[in-house]
Design goal:
CATH architecture of the domain at 325-417 in chain B: Sandwich
Strand order of the largest sheet of chain A: 8-7-12-11-10-9
Order of helices and strands of chain A: EHEEEEEEEEEEEEEEE
Radius of gyration of chain A: 23 Å
Number of strands of chain A: 16
CATH class of the domain at 325-417 in chain B: Mainly Beta
Structural class of chain A: mainly beta
Oligomer: heterodimer
Shape of chain B: elongated
Strand content of chain A: over 45%
Largest sheet of chain A: 6 strands, mixed
Structural class of chain B: mainly beta
Helix content of chain B: under 10%
Distance between the termini of chain A: 77 Å
Chain lengths: 154, 433
């Protein structure tokens, strides 16, 4: 019996999943593609290699009181910001700066509390050199040069 | 005539220009300077100084005239508490731009939910709270749509700033003439975002990727002749469900776009499903990422990641843990409506060490019918499977494990024509083998 060979390539070299809702027959595109990404070399199996801030067993402590701080995972919190003065954690429960990763007690982290109290909207960072500001629609944390300290507006 | 004076405090403002005058009567005068022209009912005004909120105008009373003096206090402030908390902000060429404000209910016109404020250049001072109005650098404007509009996000875009609201996308272009202000250009009307994280920028600020409130993926980038232009990408049939039942207090339906500068790719997720979008296309990934930074070779990175080779950090939620790459093609009928038989599927590419691959075919004989699935057929070590199945329409499904090491350039389907009733010409009359 005569047989035919039909290559299907487009979905493996460009676009991957089709962008339009309407199906186009024989487009060569995909309707589902999981745990992969499209690259010039083809479709490659892929999982982003990112360390999770909420590593299993990791605890957070207040730098002043040494009390444990609970950082809850509730989408999209916690958020992490890299600034010129350090790494900040925008959490559901407040804004913190990592002051000491505590290598002797890895993986625990010591935090400086900038603004405790629940937020609703996600944090965004305004990367002012030396004095980054943060706002969340619920809290606004900025450096007041008159008061020479950070101010929290709720 | 009795003398009259105004005492200004704090003393810090006296050397940076704090002055008072009687409106229309005297020149600007220093604190404790006297005049003999004061009368009850006249208005005392104060000069603006940087970093302070000037006192409100004072109406001179008979008591003040009798006492021969009154006092006024400049208040050190950079932000008024009554302005509340902005939804988001950004830094642009030395100016801070803040936008939006959250209200539980719709506000009356003009509504601060859609306000956009920008600071002086090089100072965190805003118009009405410490900024020098005469410099004309700090300013404010309202979004141009309804009072129910909420300005969600400000992001630099090349030499401009894009403002994403719930109802539009506008571009603020800095101009130097007639004064250092922003010119407003409306880019998208009726198209906005639901939350501040629904848009992200690449590192250079030359491309924004956002999920609009209807679930369409869109880009804002540099178009022809350097003009900033929006571009509709699509994927509404996939991303539309990400924002279903949007509720920020619970985080449900909160679509987040996160940029990974190391790989030049965007992650789009709502915490339940997650996608990767790059210059080549869209795929689904097995982790939800709401934030991403790379600490590289910093001291803090070495302490944070004692046992990890990568120095990236984020909020990472595993979603798919089966360890398989899963692929399904769009409908294939080989440009023939007749019944065909798929005899073999070959996977082109490499599958990695100790990899196992499977092929499954979804098929149907009636175009109005539903697809039926075969069982998974394991591929030979060279990536060939023989899932013999007949139908008019097909979808080819692949799965491979482990995920690492899989690179597929395409697949080749070997098929034969089973039903020759729709064929004309040589094929129908031949005895092909």
């Amino acid at each position: 019996m005569k047989t035919f060979r039909t290559p299907i390539i487009k979905g493996f070299s460009e676009q991957a999943i089709r962008a339009a809702e309407v199906s186009t027959r024989n487009s060569g595109l995909l309707i589902s593609c999981k745990q992969a990404r499209i690259q010039k070399a083809g479709l490659e199996g892929y999982t982003p290699d990112v360390n999770d801030i909420l590593l299993t067993g990791r605890k957070f402590y207040d730098s002043v009181t040494a009390a444990e701080i609970t950082i809850t995972r509730r989408w999209p919190f916690p958020q992490i910001f890299l600034t010129d003065v350090g790494v900040f954690i925008g959490a559901l429960s407040g804004l913190y700066r990592i002051t000491d990763p505590s290598p002797d007690e890895y993986p625990d982290i010591v935090l400086v509390d900038y603004s405790s109290g629940a937020t609703v909207w996600p944090w965004t960072c305004i990367p002012i050199p030396g004095y980054p500001a943060f706002t969340s629609g619920t809290k606004f944390v900025y450096y007041d040069s008159n008061a020479t300290s950070y101010v929290v507006v709720s | 005539m009795a003398t009259f004076t105004v005492t200004i405090t704090p003393t810090a403002v006296l050397t940076i220009g704090a002055r008072w005058c009687i409106k229309g009567i005297t020149r600007w005068m220093a604190s404790a300077a006297t005049t003999t022209l004061a009368l009850a009912g006249q208005t005392i005004q104060f000069q603006q100084v940087e970093g302070y909120l000037k006192p409100a105008d004072i109406t001179i009373t008979a008591g003040m005239i009798t006492a021969g003096t009154t006092a006024a206090v400049y208040t050190a402030t950079q932000w008024l508490a009554s302005w509340g908390t902005p939804m988001s902000g950004c830094l642009f060429k030395g100016q801070v731009l803040l936008c939006g404000r959250n209200f539980a209910t719709e506000q009356t016109f003009p509504s601060e939910s859609r306000i956009i404020r920008w600071s002086e250049i090089g100072a965190f001072r805003f118009l009405g709270a410490g900024a020098n109005a005469l410099k004309n650098e700090a300013g404010m404007m309202y979004g141009t749509k309804a009072s129910s509009e909420v300005a969600m996000r400000t992001l630099p875009m090349k030499d401009h700033v894009a403002i994403y609201t719930t109802m539009q996308v506008i571009l603020l272009k800095p101009v130097s003439q007639p004064a250092p202000v922003f010119e407003v250009e409306e880019l998208l009307d009726g198209i906005g975002i639901l939350n501040p994280l629904a848009v992200a920028s690449n590192s250079e600020g030359t491309k924004h990727v956002f999920v609009d409130k209807n679930g369409y993926l869109r880009e804002l980038g540099i178009g022809p002749y350097g003009k900033i232009a929006p571009k509709l990408i699509g994927y509404q049939h996939i991303l539309g469900t990400l924002q279903s039942n949007f509720n920020m207090p619970t985080g449900v339906g909160c679509a987040v776009v996160t940029y990974n500068p190391d790989e030049d790719e965007f992650y789009i997720s709502n915490g339940v499903n997650s996608y990767l979008y790059n210059a080549d296309g869209l795929t689904e990934i097995g982790v939800a990422i709401s934030t991403f930074i790379n600490l590289k070779s910093t001291i803090i990175a070495n302490e944070l990641f004692a046992s990890s080779s990568t120095k990236t950090l984020g909020n990472v939620t595993p979603l798919i843990t089966d360890g398989y790459v899963n692929i399904e093609t769009d409908i294939v009928d080989f440009n023939l409506a007749a019944i065909k038989t798929i005899r073999q599927v070959e996977i082109a590419g490499s599958l990695g060490t100790s990899a196992v691959a499977y092929v499954m075919i979804k098929y149907r004989n009636d175009r109005s019918g539903s697809f039926v699935s075969t069982s998974w057929v394991r591929c030979s070590p060279n990536g060939v499977a023989t899932p013999i199945v007949s139908g008019s329409d097909f979808k080819i499904c692949l799965k491979m494990t482990p995920v690492d090491g899989v690179v597929i350039n395409g697949i080749t389907v070997e098929w034969s024509l089973t039903d020759k009733s729709s064929v004309r010409g040589n094929y129908a009359s031949s005895s092909a083998t």
